[in-house]
Request: fold
Amino acid sequence: QVQLVESGGGLVPAGGSLRLSCAASGSIVGVVSMAWYRQAPGKQRELVATISSVGSTVYADSVKGRIEISRDGAKNTVILQMNSLKPEDTAVYYCNGRTELIMIWGQGTQGTVSS
Reply:
């Protein structure tokens, strides 16, 4: 089973950027898509962006135009580049890998955007 480890979180001012990385280890042949989710304080986890095995991407309306998901196949890594960040983007960001049967989750990385 794939294991996912997120990194790149931190504290940035409003309007700043964060680059989150999700490194995958183990067998990845069954993974059909990767995604980033986030969970803000007091709110439920929500989908931020997905990227399929063929490279197609989908973004949540709340982040469209500000966030880009990409895949680095050589490093088995998925990147979430976040720009023009807002305080409401503050959340724990989780990497997700989906097979035909299950979802695999990382432990999350905290992204905080100050006012």
